[in-house]
Amino acid sequence: MEGSCGGGGGGGAGQMAAWQGRVGATNIGRLRHGKTSSSSSAAVAARGGGVTAWHLRVFAGVVGVMGCLLLVASLMMSAVHQVQFRNAAISRSFRGLQELKQNSVRTEEAEQIMHPRLLQMATSVVTKNESDSDSVKFSLWEEPYKQARKWKPCAAKHSLPDEVPEENNNGFILISANGGLNQQRVAVCNAVVVAALLNATLVLPRFLYSSVWKDTSQFGDIYQEDYFVNYMKSDVHIVKDLPPHLQSLDLEAIGSQITDMDISKEAAPSEFIKAVLPILQQNGVVHFLGFGNRLGFDSVPVHLQRLRCRCNFHALKFVPEIQRAGSLLVQRLRRAGAMRTEMDKQLFGSNMLDVPALLAGGEPSRYLALHMRFEEDMVAYSLCDFGGGDAEREELQAYRETHFPTLAMRLRNTSVSPEEQRSLGRCPLTPEEAGLVLTALGYDRGTFIYVAGSQIYGGAARLRPLTRLFPNLVTKEDVLSSAELAPFKNFSSRLAALDFIACASADVFAVTDSGSQLSSLVSGYRVYHGRGRAPTLHPNRKRYAQILGEEEGIGWGGFERRVRNMVEEYKRVSARPRGRSVYRQPRTPGCMCRAAGDGSVDF
């Protein structure tokens, strides 16, 4: 580009001018040597020709220069626009957390602080963390145990025939999954296993409308239907609709509707064979209404456990629209172009957008994703006290009456102690408590943090202690423009998919609520596809509550040491413990293999 606009005299326009100059000079030379007519009119014509050639050279040169200037200006404007676009969370006004942060400055006197002594010490320490050695800073962003790299994904392979035969099929299984994006994902993969277990055809899952999530999205709005059906065809037969002769049946009236009340939580496969298979064989169809965590983990044989992992880690791909928006989100967080890591390939496939190399200068930036599950529904359901007094208790009780009527009714007859809930580790971490953990681990004030689940209960007043420690907080609303988010507006599950992508792709993922499905699924996804290079910070809420309960008697050094030990324990690499979710901890037979020598074995 520079060569054509520099010494070359303006590319094609410059070459044309040079050619015209050479032709003009040759003609004039011939005239002067008498090789043409010597009449005065011919001489005048020759001089006129020379003048005309000179004007043409000048004109062509000017056009060439102007063309180069316009091209350079266009490139510069494009670069500036893209840099601003990519760094929108820093260089432009925020639309997400920034609005809360600005509001919190105006209402600082109303900020809600539960641990003032620790917060004061942390405010001083978080700045000192910036002076830590490079080796210490490096350890904050790396998986500490090399054993994690010995575990490889193994669910992609299967041991069944190339395609499941349709003969001897016992009928159709229809599921209507409740909850949000992540609860529904679990329900889908559990349904795949149940369909295979009962030798049935699975109808593409349907999603129930929730008064909490308020999202009308169906399977095909979030996941690629054809990819899912084709990927799983060797394991279970999947169709998009019930056949016409079954669509008109009243499934509840004929006894084919199965609710969560009919199946035990985390039931063994034998319970499905005993309770569901006879209905399926009799009526040809069974409808699981509200199907979620109805299938256990420990009692499931290896070949069915593999199906679970094939579904969750391989078959469920977000639709291209979500993949493209997610790739744009991640690249702006990294401030770099497409990296094509294994995680990128799994999340985006062929829909990874490429940022021009011109705009992707320097090394990619690191970012930490924090799932701040401190939203009103979680806060209300936890039955914990967060220091807001009577106003907070009345507000949360009103929310329970509307959204959790069964829980609200139970509270009328039973007394629940918020203190006991906290001591048992059942309270989600506040933004303040999350900030104290990150500071104790050694993250400094400049750490770039992506916050998932950004509708913080309590707003600016509750967020302020965290932003005091870590001001570089962003959400998807900060990084993506309103136009880019427009297709997902009013669809909470599709927005949650963007959070899933940003958290799965992060250099470090920090969990604040072990009961959250997003935290569980993202943690497992990072273990499975992270190749041992995707660390997750997972505080033990019960132990953390004990530490915070003794805060008046410990200094910062003691607090820091105990928090680091607490988080370190979760990072240790081991096979899935009994009773734990395969979705969170996929290091289990049928799902992941542990390398032994030159090969890989399940165990």
Automatic annotation (TrEMBL):
The keyword Transferase applies. GO terms for cellular component: membrane. It is a single-pass membrane protein. GO terms for molecular function: glycosyltransferase activity. Keywords: Carbohydrate metabolism, Fucose metabolism, Glycoprotein, Glycosyltransferase, Membrane, Transferase, Transmembrane, Transmembrane helix. It is found in: Membrane. InterPro entries: FucosylTrfase_pln, GDP-Fuc_O-FucTrfase, GT106_glycosyltransferase. It comes from the Eukaryota. The chain crosses the membrane at residues 58-80, 186-209. Its main location: membrane. GO terms for biological process: fucose metabolic process. It holds the Pfam family O-FucT. Belongs to the glycosyltransferase GT106 family. This is O-fucosyltransferase family protein. It comes from Oryza glumipatula.
